[in-house]
Write a structure and sequence with these properties.
CATH class of the largest domain: Alpha Beta
Helix content: 40-55%
Number of helices: 19
Largest sheet: 6 strands, parallel
CATH superfamily of the largest domain: Glycogen Phosphorylase B
Structural class: alpha/beta
CATH architecture of the largest domain: 3-Layer(aba) Sandwich
Radius of gyration: 24 Å
CATH topology of the largest domain: Rossmann fold
Number of strands: 12
GO molecular function, one term: glycosyltransferase activity
Protein name: D-inositol 3-phosphate glycosyltransferase
Keywords: Transferase
Shape: globular
Length: about 500
């Protein structure tokens, strides 16, 4: 655990709540977190970071005003703890039964939040994970699943389903064992399980929760579970959890700051008060992303990002094959790392390019030292995702003065305006047609790139983003002097970090 123990009297305090991003990995959301932290040296920060195994290294250089980084692994070795006994076991069993019922019975959803907060206290006491890894939890789910009148009963859930679903919930609920923020403002930089410590902080200490969704977490869970290797009873239970968790997060957040208007629609549909939503766009420093300069001699499409199914590189590769049928000299250059566990997807994409006969022209070039080189490498920069928030790679490429072709997801259309071409997702033919349209017209590419850079300078600068969030933090932050006299700010993070990391 990273610790800078000296806190400054009077400095506003923010606890960032992250999942799979800052400070343990690269990517757009991590860049955004680093921008906020580096841009506000007058504030103090802690980070509660949900990670994979707990062995992930910190890959960002953390400034001195980041004091504690607590790693909460969702997988790997289970957290330390003990089984509850006596009344505590009966109380937790009853809460868990109400929790499961709320996930499966539309008439019982009001029980979700009270049951969740009872389970949160058990998690902090060290009993929830051990309970969920025991036979009693599995038996409770099996009994709930087989109640008359529940739709899931018709799918005939099996014991294997119960074991699988219980294990998935145990892992998803591990962040509840993190000590909830006790003062300042808790800022969840995504929805989902990262919000759990923040919700506990609202419930126990009335710490304001700020929620920023770059992509729509619930929508991405729906997309991911479409192809997940589980039977329908398991999917129904887990997706029910994510849906009710999203709704509770929207209800309890003091302020929601989506990165685009598309996300706002999801949040309002999920029960967020429209008066508590304030759209804040991502921003870049135009000086750090100057015009990219001369284009490559050969017609080249470039792409930058992490190699992940949600980026839909398969559609991009299929589109490129259509482009190359018209322009045999064309190349597709893909820049970005492959996250742990994503190797199979990358191999699938490489196999697709080979199967279609274009392996010689499709290159996976890995991480690049300077991301500007990735944008400069193409005549046109592509974005093929099936889900996005307000993508950094897009506005960075626009700042570099490159013409873009992007899929119409999330806040992409808001970012591009008239300064790029937008096509439907999962449509190789439309994507190829747009790319060919720009590759065949150098004057249009140049004019579009110039318009894109001016649009970034006018609307999407880093300075605007940082100043907006500074004002939000100062508006919401609970001062340390509002704590009970017996609480030492930051104490819990240092005490429990070792046990949470396994």
């Amino acid at each position: 655990m990273h610790v800078h123990p000296v806190r400054r009297p009077g400095a506003a305090h923010v606890t960032l709540l992250t999942e799979g991003t800052y400070p343990h990995s690269h990517g757009g959301v991590s860049v955004w977190c680093d921008q906020l932290v580096q841009g506000m040296p007058d504030l103090d920060f802690d980070v509660i970071a949900v990670t994979g195994t707990g062995r992930e290294p910190v890959v960002w250089e953390l400034p001195s005003h980041v004091h504690d980084v607590l790693c909460v692994p969702m997988w790997g070795a289970p957290p330390a703890g003990r089984l509850p006994r006596g009344r505590a076991r009966n109380r937790l069993s009853a809460a868990y039964e109400r929790f499961l019922t709320s996930l499966l019975d539309p008439h019982a959803e009001e029980h979700f939040a009270p049951a969740l907060y009872t389970m949160a206290r058990a998690a902090v006491e060290g009993t929830l994970s051990a309970f969920l890894r025991g036979d009693r939890a599995i038996a409770i789910l099996a009994a709930v699943w087989n109640r008359p009148g529940l739709a899931v009963r018709e799918a005939r859930p099996t014991l294997h389903d119960a074991v699988t679903a219980t294990a998935l919930l145990e892992h998803a609920l591990r962040p509840l064992a993190a000590p909830p923020p006790r003062y300042g403002v808790a800022h969840a930089v995504s929805g989902g399980v990262a919000v759990l410590p923040g919700l506990a902080g609202v419930e126990r200490y009335e710490v304001p929760l700020l929620l920023t969704e770059h992509g729509v977490y619930l929508r991405e869970r729906y997309l991911g579970y479409r192809t997940a290797p589980y039977r329908w009873p398991v999917k129904a239970l887990v997706l029910g959890f994510f849906r009710l968790l999203a709704e509770e997060s929207y209800r309890r957040a003091a302020l929601i700051t989506p990165g685009n208007r598309y996300n706002r629609l999801w949040e309002e549909q999920g029960g967020a008060d429209p008066r508590a939503i304030r759209t804040v766009y991502n921003g870049v420093d135009p000086a750090a992303f100057p015009p990219a300069g001369p284009e490559p001699d050969e017609p080249t499409l470039s792409w930058a990002g992490r190699v992940d199914p949600i980026k839909d590189l398969e559609t991009l590769i299929r589109a490129f094959c259509l482009v190359r049928a018209e322009l045999p000299a064309a190349r597709l250059r893909l820049f970005g790392g492959t996250p742990r566990g994503g190797e199979v997807y990358r191999e699938r994409c490489e196999a697709l390019a080979a199967e279609l006969g274009h392996a010689d022209a499709v290159t996976f070039e890995g991480r690049v030292d300077d991301i500007k080189d990735a944008y400069a490498a193409g005549n046109v920069v592509m974005l093929s995702s099936i889900s996005e928030g307000f993508p950094f790679t897009l506005i960075e490429a626009m700042s570099c003065g490159r013409a873009t072709v992007s899929t119409d997801v999330g806040g992409v259309r808001e970012a591009v305006g008239d300064a790029g071409l937008v096509v439907p997702p999962r449509d190789p033919a439309r994507m190829a047609a747009a790319a060919l349209e720009l590759l065949g017209d150098v004057e249009r590419r140049r004019a579009m790139g110039e318009a894109a850079r001016l649009r970034v300078i006018d609307r999407f600068t880093l300075c605007q983003t940082i100043e907006t969030f500074r004002s939000v933090y100062l508006e919401l932050a609970m001062p340390a002097w509002a704590l009970p006299a017996t609480v030492e700010p930051g104490q819990d993070l240092r005490i429990v970090a070792g046990s949470l990391a396994g």
